[in-house]
Write a structure and sequence with these properties.
The chain has 367 residues and is an alpha/beta fold. It has three domains: 130 residues, no CATH class; 65 residues; 141 residues, no CATH class. 69% of the residues lie in helices and 8% in strands. It contains 16 helices and five strands. Strands 2-3-1-4-5 form a five-stranded mixed beta sheet, with helices on both faces. Helix 9 packs antiparallel against helix 10. The longest helix is centred in the last third of the chain and has 33 residues. The radius of gyration is 38 Å and the shape is elongated.
Length: 367
């Protein structure tokens, strides 16, 4: 008697379908194959089951039985042991007095690792590996390329660098018509490619996508911080230019070379008011959004006062080191900045304890 033994080492049949294994009988194996094909038509074990049925139908000179045995996805040793146990069950279920030999049907070398386990229980006449015919054809190559190109991650990783490289020749031709140096074209393209590969390698693309997504959501939600951030960016640029202008003015008036402390003081003195305006603008925008979202806490209002406090202190210190203010002005600036921060902290802490925002939202009035 010939036993056509279909092997599914990682138990796709048991995990994806409600079929209990081992499966013994031509009709039972066919039903199991249909069930697996219905759930996952691309699973190669479907072909193994149908191949076993096909082999059994083609043998008419001896008695043939078809069975399917499975292992598990826990590893080779555990899977092989489970296959051996199911083979024992299959052999015990065969009510025949004649000798039994087996023809093992698998879908690859991994499943064939269980052959010694089966051979220890029954004589093996042969091993049949199922190879899907269309996998060797151009159709399979086309299908694989189509699946790869449909993947957004693959498109970004493969097609973008390839597209940049393919632009070298047409851009070089355009540069020759415009009488531009060819080295500039290669330099620009290599820079683009290098920046792209560097961003992919460091994972910056995900960060950029996240920032763009947050900006889009903020824009659609009507958040004030979108405007305040833009204004703050402009103020920071103006502050930087103002600081450089102040440094140039100080260098022009100085008799000798400026030290590092004087350079830093000049930059701070020229930029601090613009930087402070940027900080106040962004903090007020954030406070406004928190209020509109009904999440505002009294302590959030400390932010603009803290910015002003820091700006007053930095302005006084930088002016003192540039000899633009005396010691009394420095003392006033340090005292004023400290008192401004302390008073705002204390005032909003008292307001939060007396008039809690949570109580206003739930209407209970309780602290």
């Amino acid at each position: 008697m010939l036993l056509v033994l279909c092997v599914d080492l990682d138990d796709d049949l048991g995990r994806k379908t409600p079929v209990d294994t081992p499966v013994v009988g031509r009709n039972e194996v066919e039903e199991a194959a249909v069930a697996l094909a219905t759930v996952d038509p691309e699973d190669s074990d479907v072909n193994v089951l149908f191949q076993g049925i096909h082999i059994a139908k083609g043998i008419d000179d001896e008695r043939v039985e078809v069975a399917a045995v499975t292992g598990n996805d826990g590893g080779d040793v555990s899977a092989n042991r489970e296959v051996g146990e199911e083979v024992d069950e299959v052999l015990a279920s065969l009510s025949t007095g004649e000798g039994v030999t087996a023809l093992v049907v698998t879908d690859g070398a991994q499943d064939e690792s269980v052959v010694p386990v089966i051979r220890s229980r029954v004589t093996i006449d042969g091993v049949r590996r199922v190879v899907v015919r269309q996998a060797q054809d151009l159709e399979s190559v086309y299908y694989t390329m189509k699946q790869v190109l449909n993947d957004p991650e693959t498109r970004g990783t493969v097609l973008v660098p390839l597209g940049i490289l393919l632009l070298i020749y047409p851009l070089a031709v355009i540069a020759s018509f415009l009488e531009l140096p060819g080295g500039a074209v290669f330099g620009i393209i290599s820079t683009m490619l290098g920046l792209y590969l560097l961003s992919r390698g460091l994972g910056l693309m995900e960060t950029v996508d996240t920032v763009i997504g947050r900006a889009r959501n903020s824009l659609y939600a009507g958040r004030v911080t979108i405007i305040t951030y833009l204004v703050a960016a402009a103020l920071l640029v103006i502050g930087g230019v103002s600081g450089l202008n102040q440094l140039e003015a100080v260098q022009t008036d100085a008799e000798g070379t400026l030290g590092a402390l004087e350079v830093l003081a000049a930059l701070v003195y020229g930029a601090v008011q613009w930087f402070a305006a940027a900080g106040v603008t962004t903090s007020l925008g954030q406070v406004t959004d928190e209020y509109l979202a009904d999440r505002l806490q009294w302590r959030y209002l400390n932010a603009p006062f803290y910015v002003l406090s820091i700006a007053v202190v930095l302005h006084g210190v930088s002016a003192y080191f540039l000899d633009l203010a005396d010691l009394s002005y420095l003392a006033m600036a340090l005292t004023g900045g400290t008192l401004l921060g302390l008073v705002s902290t204390l005032a909003f802490a008292v307001a939060e304890s007396r008039f809690p925002r949570d109580a206003e939202r739930d209407g209970s009035g309780a602290v």
